[in-house]
TrEMBL record:
Record protein name field: Glucosamine-6-phosphate deaminase
Superkingdom field: Bacteria
Coiled coil stretches, renumbered: none
Residue ranges of every copy of the Glucosamine/galactosamine-6-phosphate isomerase domain listed in the record: 10-236
Lineage: Bacteria, Pseudomonadati, Bacteroidota, Flavobacteriia, Flavobacteriales
């Protein structure tokens, strides 16, 4: 096992522990008047985390005024108000319920023209770099081992870019888009390089369905066929799992 793992009884307990870790980091940065740079993820895995962060804000006064966040990815093309847009997901689950400043959260723009994408992706990374990099990156994992939308074959030094989604990823997403033919074929994703440059990485995975890919990512060889396996080479990455997701380790 080349990646540290921590296993919880269930995803609820795990999500609370990750939320506590984030709260501690935000507060430590507040004490020294520094921004806290978070890399955020979508998908079902972080939903419990965001619910707990909202609770910590409402019930325990956790402030997000010093938080600057960068989401991993967005479908392309995608209307921000669409039911499936990741910016809408983030607003509904987190941003609209805490005191993060609207200018401080970033989700890749699904409405760019093709011609704008390269410059936009370059600027997205430049903003992160200007802030000194991501302090803590939250990740889920696709069934094929993708992180963000860095699919199999993504290079370890890949940049933020427009990618073609794997068939298997589109099939998984098609339930939200009422059918494969309505499911986007492309997305904008933060590259592997910026993920690897984050000072700390927490990948969360729940359920039996993730057990195989977790085993491969943690214990098998590092390969660009399974981008999550790159995290074996990160010096501060941890996989937070429930019992089912850890069952093949
Ligand atoms: C999508 C997202 C990924 C996410 C993955 C897994 O592909 N772009 O960032 O990790 O789904 O989703 P879930 O957490 O629902 O299993």
């Amino acid at each position: 096992e080349n990646i540290n793992t921590v296993v919880f009884e269930n995803s609820n307990e795990a999500s609370k522990a990750v939320a506590q870790e984030i709260a501690t980091l935000i507060q430590a940065k507040q004490k020294v008047n520094s921004p806290c740079i978070l890399g955020l993820a979508t998908g079902s895995s972080p939903k419990g985390l965001y619910a707990e962060l909202v609770r910590l804000h409402k019930e325990e006064g956790l402030s997000f005024k010093n938080v600057i966040s960068f989401n991993l990815d967005e479908y392309y093309p995608m209307e921000p108000n669409s039911i499936n847009s990741y910016v809408r997901f983030m607003k509904e689950l987190l941003f609209d319920h805490v005191d993060i400043l609207p200018e401080n959260y970033h989700v890749p723009d699904g409405l760019l023209t093709k011609e704008q994408i390269a410059d936009y992706c370059h600027d997205y990374e430049a903003k992160i770099e200007a802030l000194g990099g991501i302090d803590l990156q939250i990740l889920g994992i696709g069934g094929n081992g993708h992180i963000g939308f860095n699919e199999s074959g993504s290079l370890q030094n890949s940049k933020t870019r427009l990618v073609a989604l794997d068939h298997i990823t589109r099939v998984a997403a098609s339930k939200d888009f009422s059918g494969l033919s309505n499911t986007p074929r492309t997305a904008i994703t933060l590259g592997v390089k910026k993920i690897m440059e984050a000072k700390q990485v927490i990948l969360m995975a729940w359920g039996e369905g993730k057990a195989n890919i977790i085993k491969k990512s943690v214990e098998d060889e590092v390969t660009n066929q399974i981008p999550a396996s790159f995290l074996q080479e990160h010096n501060n990455a941890i996989f937070v799992l429930d019992k089912e997701a850890s069952s093949k380790l």
